[in-house]
Specification:
With about 400 residues, this protein is of the alpha+beta class. It has helices at about 15-40, 50-60, 75-95, 185-190, 215-230, 235-270, 280-285, 290-300, 300-315, 365-389, and strands at about 1-10, 115-120, 130, 135, 140-145, 155-160, 170-175, 190-195, 200-205, 205-210, 275, 315-320, 350-355, 360-365. The protein has a 7-stranded antiparallel β-sheet with strand order 2-6-7-1-5-4-3. The chain has a 5-stranded mixed β-sheet with strand order 10-9-8-11-12. Helix 1 (about 15-40) packs across helix 2 (about 50-60), helix 1 crosses helix 3 and helix 2 runs antiparallel to helix 3 (about 75-95).
């Protein structure tokens, strides 16, 4: 499988200027090519091919005074920008005709100079990693890299990213082999995962407290955003104030990412099988007020995706439970299974309830985890039975 490794890079002042030129040139090539495609569509002309776009917006454009500065950056960066545009159009067309899974894709849009910028160098750019551990990029030079770990294989490409807080990263795509962990007793170590807000996740035998990274920094972030609104637009003070806001957001994102990586790794090491609910996080987050903000802060969808990828790599069973399964309302007591639990969003405050049929007292989250685990075991047995036939 393919993984992405991100490392921090520290370009010098001249290298930052060269990267800024590369960011801008790639953006201009994208916009010029997109404009040509839109004009051809509006005039009813045939769609220009990739070769024709490359000739017009790169080769011929370099010969004009208005676009002569395109020759100051690597041609591979410009060509990759055109390939990204072709990929965007391909995703849009396949999404429109129903052959692409996932949410509907919109057509490509013109790019603006935003706080986050990126360029990609493929193998054709002849970039390399020096013996001293520096990243050699064409027309940029050798960039200092802080390696946190070695790459497991030779990367196929590298993407240089500048985030809104002003940090630079090199993102490598590498091919890695699966690393199955020692097999555990499934009956003793499998677990359901009930995700929530008051408690981040309830597993078999333990709970994961909600870290609330955004909520903890909300007051500090509010003061920083208020400082931005008081600065004059276009001034250096406003730029510095926006940078301070971006640094707070970057810290929150880093904390959340580190928390997810640690917790998902622990779950994979301790559990032979993992059963998680298939939440409609996007629909839940559309609610106004503090509830929607808290759902965004938890980032439950990313947690489930990260856990699923790690289970696949390390040889663990991962099964998603249907989102319409009444795991909260159903009594998990043996031989009962009646739907006597709290129902609807108006009973979210009910954390402990008693089944009216068997008189069993349940903790809402622990009962949901037990039902998810039982449904996951049933689904796993069905999958094994289908595989044996």
């Amino acid at each position: 499988m393919k993984l992405r490794y991100n490392v921090r890079v520290y370009p010098s002042a001249s290298q930052r200027a060269s990267l800024a030129r590369a960011f801008g040139c790639a953006r201009v090539v994208w916009n010029d090519a997109l404009r040509l495609r839109r004009d051809a569509y509006g005039q009813g002309l045939p769609r220009p091919t990739a070769a024709e776009l490359s000739k017009q917006v790169i080769t011929e454009a370099k010969k004009t005074p208005e676009r002569a500065w395109l020759g100051e950056v690597s041609a591979v960066v410009l060509q990759q920008s055109l390939r990204d545009l072709e990929t965007a159009y391909s995703n849009f067309f396949t999404s429109r005709n129903g052959t692409r899974k996932g949410p509907k894709m919109a057509p490509p849009k013109f790019k603006k100079k935003t706080a986050r910028q990126a360029v990609r160098f493929t193998a054709n750019a002849c970039w390399s990693i020096t013996r001293g551990g520096k990243l050699r990029l064409p027309k940029i030079g050798e960039v200092e890299v802080r390696w946190s770990r070695q790459l497991p294989s030779n990367p196929s490409s590298v993407t240089v990213i500048k985030d809104p807080s002003g940090r630079y990263f090199a993102s490598f795509v590498v091919e890695v082999e699966d690393k199955p962990l020692p097999e555990l007793d499934a009956e003793e170590t499998d677990t359901g995962i009930d995700l929530g807000l008051s408690c981040y996740a309830v597993l078999r035998g333990r709970r994961i407290a909600s870290p609330k990274f955004f909520r903890r920094q909300e007051r500090k972030l509010r003061r920083a955003q208020r400082a931005v609104s008081r600065k004059q637009k276009g001034s250096n003070n406003r730029r510095k104030a926006k940078h301070a806001v971006a640094k707070i957001h970057a810290r929150i994102a880093d904390q959340r990412r580190d928390f997810m990586e640690q917790e998902t790794t622990r779950i994979v090491r301790e559990s032979q099988a993992v059963y998680a609910e298939d939440l409609n996080v996007k629909g839940m987050a559309t609610r106004r007020g503090t509830l929607g903000k808290s759902i965004h802060d938890q980032s439950l969808g990313r947690f489930v995706r990260t856990l699923e990828a790690k289970c696949l790599r390390y040889g663990r069973t991962f099964i998603k439970i249907d989102r319409w399964f009444p795991y909260t309302q159903q009594c998990s007591a043996p031989g009962c299974g009646r739907l006597t639990g709290p129902k609807g969003r108006h009973e979210l405050h009910v954390r402990v309830w008693t089944c009216t049929e068997c008189r069993t007292r349940h903790d809402r989250d622990e009962n949901a985890e037990a039902n998810i685990r039982a449904a996951g075991r049933k689904r796993a047995a069905e999958i094994r039975h289908e595989a044996e036939r």
